[in-house]
Design brief:
This protein is of the alpha+beta class and 83 residues long. The protein is built from four helices and three strands; from the N terminus they run βααββαα. 1% of the residues are buried.
């Protein structure tokens, strides 16, 4: 649920708590000054922890095991502009 709406700096200052609640629920709020966008309040995405990233890296490495370049060398591919 991404709802994008605009509020003035004055309104954002006076309603910050309620705007934060809206952002937590998935809304995006554009803050304007004299009708021009200057900032966006967006929901913070969930951060992944280190163990999740390490597990993903292990899966990527596993998929590459046993694969070959058919006798080609990475250095040669790079020099040819293929990598």
């Amino acid at each position: 649920m991404t709802i994008i709406r605009e509020v003035s700096v004055f309104e954002a200052k006076n309603r910050l708590s309620s705007l934060l609640e809206e952002a937590e629920k998935g809304s995006e709020i554009v803050i304007t000054r004299r009708g021009k966008p200057v900032a966006k309040l967006v929901p913070l995405t969930a951060r992944r922890d280190r163990s999740t990233a390490e597990a993903a890296a292990r899966r990527i490495l596993e998929r590459g095991r046993g694969r070959s370049l058919g006798g080609l060398k990475i250095k040669d591919l790079i020099e040819e502009g293929r990598m």
